[in-house]
UniProtKB/TrEMBL annotation:
InterPro entries: F-box-like_dom_sf, F-box_dom, FBD, LRR_dom_sf, LRR_FXL15/At3g58940/PEG3-like. Pfam families: F-box, LRR_At5g56370. PANTHER family: F-BOX DOMAIN-CONTAINING PROTEIN (PTHR31639:SF237), F-BOX PROTEIN-LIKE (PTHR31639). It comes from Punica granatum. Residues 5-53 form the F-box domain. PROSITE patterns: FBOX. This is F-box domain-containing protein. Signal peptide: none annotated.
Amino acid sequence: MEDKADRLSELPEHLIDHILLLLSIKDAVKTSMLSRKWRYRWTTLPELVFDDLRTPTSSDAQSSNSVLGKIISDVLLIHTGPLRKFVISHKKFHADSDISRWCYYLSRVSLKELVLNFSVSPWCKIPSSLFSCQELVCLNLCSCSINLPTTFGGFKHLKRMELSSCLVSQDGLERLILSCPLLENMMLKNVDRQISPLHISAPKLRHLGLYGTVNLKDVSFGANHLTSGVISFSVDINEDGVAHVNQSYSSFINFFSQLPLIARLSVGRYLLKPRQSSRQGNADAGYGFWERHRSPCPSLQLRVAAIFGILGTRLELGLIRFVLENSPFLKKIFTAGPSPAPSTSQLLKDLLQIERASPCAQVVHLDAKDTIGDKLGQTFLSLHND
């Protein structure tokens, strides 16, 4: 028996660390009994993840909140050494006052990746100490209230940022983006409706996802090198009739005219929906807009595009025609919607007759089940990888 314990003790330290990272916090603590070398090894874990899978709690919300809060506090109290990743993603948890103490600790350990995903109301108020985590490379906040301190000097190493259902002012969001000079990947999902207009100044930004309430006509860019975008809004762009339709589509064109290097584009399922009332008239008006903007000089740099949630309307046909006729480098355009619908089938037939600027451009129709909910962006980005 002693020989077996010695074998565990003789395992290389990097292998022990790898094994511990595969375990939940609860199981990692239990490894203390394996041998003397393992006894306190879990207290030096470089990654701490508290989520529904690794830290399950009771069905009672109040009890669950108290238990999980104590677990996180106890683990951080005992933890020693560097910590590169910290995750709280629990649908029944709200951090309350504990978050200030945790963020203060995290600001002192050279943290690289931080995820605070709270699914319950009210918004979790982010303490100022979080903005002292100067080594952050990835930041993911959900259902948080963000108020940048006046002394905030920026996240100089941040490359990826995701903000979902967060409460933040227009000035605060613009200043946050501007203060991340290395930012390459950003997703804004259901940000505050009061943020209008929004100026995005991020010269190294390559990938942008906009979901929810941001209005295209209110978004402008500084110098940028964006190469891919995922756009999905839950609003009607034809809300006031024909005249407003043209203005909205013009905003769509103007938005992407600011992105000369865009090579991958995904348009979400609500962006091109006509208003429920007088649907046919508005849809035809939208189609007419795309017809009037057919250019004899292809200028788009798109390599791959995707339109999700299509219903087979002429409005959608107009946009797809516009892309096909003005994208000389296009390889594929993906479409997805309720299948098989007669209108969708007719749309696909019509697309076969459209002249294409790129001789190798393909139209590929996807099963709608592969593009449900939050999988939309991930599905699109995985479809093409140059």
